[in-house]
Structures are given as C-alpha cells and as structure tokens.
Design the sequence.
C-alpha cells in the first residue's frame, strides 16, 4: 500500500455513529486497515480514527471528503480526511542544544518520520552546518531580548512561506508569542524538559535537582498561551540517584526528551492525536 | 451501569464487518461504551470487542446472542456475548509461595478483580489459613512425585465441581498434564518467573543470575502442552545489578510476577484477550 | 551470617576519612561485606555505609561503637552502628485503603521485611480483622475533625508505648501534627499518591486526571512539617492513557504506591537512606 | 577538575584491602571524589574503583602506578590506573543501519562521550558522507561472504594502525573472527538487538514477533567467541503490542539499541565495567 486515507472524527456521543460511518465506508468498498475509537463517557464525546486502503475505494481523498460531508454535518462532527500521499510540512525550531534536532533529522532522513521539513529556524547560527548537510534550508533569526517582536514577525513570515502544517520546538528556548500560539493551535509542538506539571519554566533539571527527585522526565505537548500548560501528548522518565549532579540530569534528560518528542511528533503526523479541551486522545 | 454486555469477535478479515456488526447493535439501540478492533494484515484476520450498555438495548444476553448468530455464521466468526452480571469462576492453584495468592485474594476481596473464586487448590497445606480467612474453601491435594495421576484426577474433579471458567496457576510448581491443558485451553493461566522465551523450566532466576542479565522478568501466559511455550498475555521486568544475589532476584521477581499475573488475569476476565495461534491480541 | 553490623557515617568531606575508618575496621579484623560511599562535591559532605560480618570482629555492637567514637569525634561525624540482630520496631498507620497495609504485612510475615511491627494504628476500624489475623495488635483511634488534638495525643502515646523506631503512614489520610513530625524526624515515612512535586495535597489522581498526564506516580518520602515536601526516598510511575478514568488512575496507582513504599521502607530498615538537608542519599 | 585518575582493582577478597588502598591514597594526599566497591561473596572476589583528583596528589599517573605496584602484588590484584587526560581511542564498525552510528557520533561531537574516534570501518560505503562530515576517516572494507579472511585481516590492520583501545560494533552485521575476539577481549563491544539470552543470532525482532512477546529488548555486551554469549553490560526494553508488525519492532528497537549501546560504551570509557568470568560488575 503506497499511501492511505485517514479519517479522523470527533463528535458528541450517541448511538449509531460507528454504524453510520462504517457503513458509509463499506458502501464505497473501503477496506479499513486500522480502526480506533474512544468514548469519553464523562464528557459525552466520541472520537475515532480509521485508516483506509485507497485502492479499495474508487475515490480521491477530495471525493471521499465530499461524500462524507453530509454525515459530518448530521452528527455535528469535527472531522478531516488526510491522504498520506500528501506529506505534512514540519518546520523545526531550535536554539543551541542539538540532541532533539539531530534525532529528528536522522529519523526524517532514514524515512522513519513521514513528513517534509521545508526549513529549520534558529535564534543562533550554530546548527547551520548540520541542517544544511541534510539538504534543508536553515534560517538564522536572532532574537533581541529587548524587543522580540521583529524576530517573531520574521519567524511567522518564514513559517508562512514554508506553508507549514506543523511547527516543532525542538528545544527552542524562547517563549512563543500568543498570536503564533493561536494561529498554530494544535499544530505547535514543544518538548519541555520536565515531568509536567512539575518544574514549569526555566532550568527544570536544576529545579528537579534542588527538590531531590528520584525520576526526571520530559513532556511533549501542544503549546498554548499559558507557559508549559498545553495538552500533553507524551511523557517519559529516567531514574536518577544521589550520585547525579544537576549537569548529569541535563545529560540524562536529553535521551528522554529525544524519545518523548519523536514519539509525540510521529503520532501527530500519523493523525493519532486528537485534542479535547486541555487533554489529548492518543490512538497509539 | 450495573453490568455490561461484551461482544467479542474473531473472523477472516473482509470489507463490511464493522458496518454489519455496528449497524446490528445500533438497530437494537445499543450504546457502545468501549470498542476495540484489530486487523492482522499478515494473517488476514479481524478481531473486535464491543462493550455495550445493556440498559440501552431491550434484550437479555441470550436474546442478543440469538439475534447475532446469523451474522456470526455469515462472516465465519468465532464469537461470544458475555454478560458481566455473570461473574467468571476462577480456581486458583498454588504451592508454597504466597505472594501471587495474597495479591490476587486482596484484589478479589477489595472488589478490584471482578470474579468469583470458588476454591483454592494446593499441593501443600501451608496456605489454608490465609485462604480460609478470606472465606474461600481450600483443598489440599498432595502430589506424589512417583505417580501424579491420582492427584491430577482429584484436581480435575475439584475444578469440575467448582464449575471453573478459568484456572490460574499462581505459582503452582507442578507441570499440568496434557489432558487438563487441552480441556482448559485458553482458560488456564500461568505466571512464569522469567522473561520468556529466556529461561524456560526450573529455577529461572538462578539461570538468569548465572547468565548475568541486567533485567529480570516475568511472563503471564496461557498454558499449553509444551512447557512455558503458550501464548503470552503480559510481561514485565525489573532492573538488577551485580549487587544482587540469586536470592535477591527471587525476591525482586516476586513483585514483577504479582503485577504481570494480576494484569493478565484482569484482562482475561474483562474479555480483552483474544488468542490467535500462539499469540494474543490484548485490547488493554 | 545470622546478623550484621552496619556503620553509617556522614561528615564534612576531607582527605583520609576512608583510610581512617577502613583501617580501624581492618585492625579489628572486620570483614566488610558491603561498602557504599558518596562524596557530595557541591555540599562538601561525605557519606558512607559499611556492612560488617560480626563474626570477623571480636566485639559487640556497643564495644564497636565505643571504640569508634574517637574517630567520629575527630572527623565531626554523624554516625551510628546498628546490629541487625536488634530489629527496628515499625508502627504502621492506615485509614481505609488496604493495599499498602496488605502488602507490608505480607512482606513482614514472609520474612521479606526485617522488622518488628508492634502495632497498627488506624482512624477507622475496617482493618482490624486483617491486622489481628497476622497476630498484630490493632488500635482504632478515631480522629474528630473539629479537634484532632486528643486523637494525636493518643497516637503519640501508642507509638511511645510501642517503642517505635519508625512510623509508616501506609495511606493514613490525616495530616500529622508538627510535634510528631519533629519528634520522629527522619523516621516518619509516608507514601504520597503522586509524582511529587506535582499534585501536592488531596485527591492527586483526580488532579492528574484533570491535567491529562500520561504517567501517574507515587512518592515515598520522609514527613516534615510542610505538606508533601519532605526528603524523597523513592518514586515510581505507571503509564496511563486517555482510556483511563480518574477511578482507573486510583486503581493503577495502588500498585505503584505499594512498590514505592515497600522499597523505601526496606531501604530505611537496611540503613541505606541518609538524609542531607531536604534530600536523601540512598545506597540501594 | 580538568582530568582525573581512575584506579580500578579486582582481587581475591580478604580483610584489609580497602584499608591498604585508601591509606596509600591518603598518604599521597589523594582526594577520592568517587568510590565504588563490591564483594562477590559467592566468588570470594573483591572489586573497586576510585576516582581521584590529580591536583590533590603530587604524582603523574605513571608515578602513581609505580608506587601502587607493590600493593597490587601483595594482594594478587588485577589493577590499572587510568589518567582521563589520555582519551581512549574507539574504532566504530557499522554496516548499513545508521541509528547507533548517528547517536554515538553526535554524543562524541557534543563532548558527551569522552573518547577519540580515530576511524569508522564499514563493510558498506553508505555511511561515508555522514562520518566524513564529522571529520572522521571512513574505511570501506567489503566482506566477501565466500572468503572473509582478507577483509578481517584488513580490519585488524586498520584497528592496529588506529591504535584502538576499544572496538564498538554499532550494528556491524558480521560475525567477528575468534582471533580478533581474543585480541580485543574485554574491549570489543556489541549491541545485540534482542533481550539476551532470548533470540540469539539473525533477525531477532522477527523471532520476537513470531513468539508474540510483549516486550522487546536490546543487549550491550562484550564479544566473545561464542555468538551473543559474552558478558552483558547493559540491557533495556520497550513495550510492544499486537498492533506492531515485525517491521514496527525493528523500528521501535532502534531507540532501545541506541540507548543501551550508548550507556554501555559510556560506562566502559569511564572504567566502570569490570569483567568477572562471563559477568560484569558495573559501577554505574
């Protein structure tokens, strides 16, 4: 199967949704290769994700969408059809720490991460050589700490020009302005280097060291206006002991950050993450 | 919701299964509160599990089964409807190690494990007081190592008399005879104290110690005639170091065994485990 | 080896400590079976723990202490010698949740937890039968929420009468008064059902559910006056998903609490935990 | 501290070793910044590792070794002093899978892995550009499957010319000839893509898939003549489900391999791994 259609749905829960949707797919001859569903009984909301073999169905993604639209309307659905033949365009943003960037670029290069990376943006020039070796344009946009507005205007311009579907803050150590957060709501992914909600803000490993925790963590989440408070996609941890200095925590944490970010991004790219309020449904 | 219906299906994969089943449920007014599906693309087989609110559907489990039967026939399904109002009857078997038994009895007593325990059978008398304190009958069936046949005839008689739906070997250190394995195929659960397929057979922790592994494990699996080779339900591990003796591994392993067995049994009781060949689908 | 001497030392770091201590032990013919050391380079403090075979050394623990005292003085040490022949006396306190209690009692009964349990104290009467089945006295001390003073006076009296070396709050859902915290500083162990410092205070699993975390945790720590802020001994986590309700988190968390508390207590009983400020050194 | 001396000792256990060694260090004014010891009571063998601040001691590593030699002789020690100012020289060997190589090169480049990498050797030419971008010589040594002798003669020549202290098989998919195993015994590190001793040999993820395991793993170990049977340094695992194909296991396993290899190599470079028979003591 060279590509797939993905139908992702979220709507008020009621009897007959699966019947209606699955019968529609069956009527087109559609072969569902993967199906996930979730009923949030507390919130009364239903979520589903179908992966469909396009060869089994005599329709383009646009046609499928057009045919599906009345059902979406009938059930009050938020829904989308995504043809994986169209790769998502992911802009990476980074500061001076290279570990998440190296990891994502390698996954992209080896075909493990199914997306296009139109460019990398950084407030420092350090990663230029690495990025360009991968054949990806690199934009150095310095941030003046007394007036960040021009820098973020330029970032926004570059992201627009790149036609980004998604922005990944791969250890980009600047706070994103609210306008950008809002514009890319649900498409702006950050890796925070703590086990949220512990240790919000700056130097979380040093905060963790000060508190004497026995596990450190990292959190991949969507960015919202409130700092480090957006919907969590993935978290992971690593065990530490009294032997480890704050610098050791920084070092050990890098591996956790890499993995949590890579998993979170992968799930996002595969349309496995649905946002509901400040939480996520992850059909992993 | 005081109880639930669970519809569990396994059949050759083809277009329209979900449509047919979900439409049938919708036609009865059935509210699906949890749904899991899996297509094994390699094996061409489809698996599903629906949890349905009985109050939404004006049918008893027997009536629901009767109505569903033609669909089962049409699609060549293995299927069952289980009304959770009817608790599964689980016979526990144990030798001298108490940790899994204590854990399961406590989960049962606190309502965490939704089953009846008609009796506990052991080849030793050590656990009698513990079991009887829980108000559960205890049967001591000594096993003569020169002739195990009478003991297992008695075990089989007791299990039959208890109308067991499921047998759990909670560290019962005897090999189960093939007839019993066959009779309770897919309903006879063991906890093996290694990370299978490593360290099959006796004294796995001592084998692990001898090999110098850095992680020990436990495996919850269905018992088949071939020793420690049946379908795996759940596995877990614990980190060890050069500081740990073989006895330490035994001790640390107990916690892993408890958890892996409790999780595996819970999933079995919740109809979340489907067997296919020598593997399991676990809708956890 | 039927028992062991444990020498535990904490002092300002400088050249020659190990030489002085190990030479002293060697001069007595002492065979060190386990040795742990840690230099906190930031704090300039040194920590060590020796486990010594008593048969190799012709001295009682008291005599060993007496001979060691001048070294302790010379180096400004906090130190103690513990003969494991004298078991620590551990009072357990519990409310209505039984999982940690059952786990600790079973470990104690099976000889896995090397201590005496002179009594169990609870603000409810629910656990009486369980505790008494283990042959341990049970004290029901109801807490009047309008005036908790009499209850805690009684608790303190019982703990004193039991000659407790250590108090374990095995899900005792009351805040301990400052006087008791101070009196048993470094000997009063709690299990908090969150991954601290996240979710301090009441209903942490519901807080975690509200925040949409992907991992839940538990923290074993020494109690200090400030709620859930004392030195952390051990933490552990369990993965959760969008499928889990707040009640599921409560259930899944129980296993994590059991394990974190049991490990923390074991290390405490084995003199493996040294407190320094608000942190612990754990020679596990 | 710009560098450190590391004294690593293994000898028959007896009373007075620590006293003798630590007193020797103290007499030189040596400040021990990290100390690890282990007594294998079963084997009657003692292991230790001291990290010493060179500025506290008025001796070169050579002088320190010379002064220490009589103690080594007296106690029948295997011992070495390593001055970390002299970096170990690590030759990497790789086939076509890049994930471990990329990870190690990045750790080396960012200063996280304290060694020199004089060259990378591969039986394929695919990694040349990546390696050379890091400024490291790349040697393509094709292996003729009908006669591997010339290739391994060339490998041995290159390793010798590189004055390698250590060889790392970072997914080098060829069996190393016995002579090379022997020559670099205890200095030849492999990452095997299974949780050993399960799934020795070829295609371990496919073996794991076939067996239906619920956890996959990777094992970092020293290479000996017997395939995948040498002393284990580190192991790690990742949870998998029925949803994962064999190809998914391969993909998920890459992260585990990276981490297990990186940790194992780091510990080796930091003189934290002592070999005893077919096991390791890891002072991590």
Sequence:
């Amino acid at each position: 199967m060279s590509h797939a259609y993905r139908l992702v749905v979220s709507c008020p829960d009621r009897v007959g949704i699966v019947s209606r949707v699955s019968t529609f797919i069956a009527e087109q001859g559609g072969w569902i290769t993967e199906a996930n569903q979730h009923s949030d009984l507390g919130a009364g909301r239903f979520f589903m994700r179908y992966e469909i073999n396009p060869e089994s169905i005599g329709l383009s993604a646009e046609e499928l969408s057009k045919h599906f639209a009345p059902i979406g309307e009938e059930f009050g659905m938020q829904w989308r059809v995504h043809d994986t033949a169209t790769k998502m365009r992911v802009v990476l943003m980074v500061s001076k720490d290279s570990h998440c960037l190296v990891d994502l670029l390698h996954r992209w290069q080896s075909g493990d991460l199914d997306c296009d990376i139109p460019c990398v943006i950084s407030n420092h020039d350090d990663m230029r050589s690495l990025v360009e070796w991968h054949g990806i344009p690199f934009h150095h946009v310095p941030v003046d700490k007394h007036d960040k507005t021009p820098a973020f205007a330029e970032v926004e311009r570059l992201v627009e020009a790149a036609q980004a579907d998604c922005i990944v803050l791969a250890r980009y150590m600047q706070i994103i302005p609210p306008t950008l957060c809002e514009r890319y709501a649900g498409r702006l992914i950050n890796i925070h280097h703590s086990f949220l909600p512990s240790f919000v803000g700056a130097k979380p490993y040093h905060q963790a060291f000060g508190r004497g925790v026995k596990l450190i963590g990292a959190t991949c989440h969507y960015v919202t206006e409130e700092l480090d408070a957006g919907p969590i996609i993935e978290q992971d941890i690593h065990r530490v002991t009294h032997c480890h200095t704050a610098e050791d925590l920084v070092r050990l944490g890098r591996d956790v950050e890499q993995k949590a970010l890579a998993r979170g991004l992968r799930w996002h790219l595969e349309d496995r993450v649905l946002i509901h309020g400040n939480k996520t449904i992850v059909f992993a």
In short: The longest strand of chain D covers residues 31-40. The two ends of chain D are 20 Å apart (CA to CA). The interface with chain C takes residues 15-16, 18-20, 22-23, 25-27, 29-37, 39, 41, 56 of chain D (CB under 8 Å). The CA atoms of residues 193 and 203 of chain D lie 8 Å apart.
